[in-house]
Design goal:
This protein is α/β, with parallel strands linked by helices. 46% of the residues lie in helices and 18% in strands. Strands 1-2-3-4-5 form a five-stranded mixed sheet, sandwiched between helices. A hairpin with a 5-residue loop joins strand 1 and strand 2.
Length: 134
């Protein structure tokens, strides 16, 4: 499977690990359907880590994917999810960095962050969640 979606046990952190996007218009909506199902079970703030660190994707695939992600967030709102997640994009390539800059210009991703490793993203996610709880 090109995208694996999982919730960390006992935490409000969802990780979507992207290895490839063969068809952004099909893969990303399926990913957000999985994310929405997990988010419906979580109360409060959620951090969504989008891990592209090992992904084989082009900028065009990511651009299409962002459009589909926007639709996924809107669909989540329709399903009863009030706030978009805090998004952390993981990757170190030029494509990921450009995507991060584009994402932060979109209101749904305005509270987005960029990390170069999954471990760094997990540390940041836990820090962000702890400040939300205060």
């Amino acid at each position: 499977m090109p995208i694996k979606v999982e919730q960390l046990p006992g935490e409000s952190i969802i990780i979507a690990t992207v290895s490839e996007l063969s068809d952004s218009q099909q893969d990303v909506p399926a990913m957000f359907a999985d994310i929405t199902q997990l988010r419906l079970k979580i109360r409060g703030t959620v951090v969504l880590i989008l891990d592209f660190s090992d992904a084989k994707v082009s900028f065009n695939q990511i651009a299409v994917g962002l459009g589909e992600a926007f639709k996924g967030i809107k669909a989540g709102k329709a399903d009863g999810i009030e706030r978009p997640p805090i998004v952390i994009l993981v990757g170190s390539g030029v494509t990921t960095k450009v995507t991060s800059k584009v994402m932060t210009q979109m209101p749904e991703f305005a509270n987005g962050h960029m990390c170069t490793s999954k471990d760094e993203a997990l540390v940041l996610a836990r820090k962000l969640l702890s400040t939300q709880e205060e």
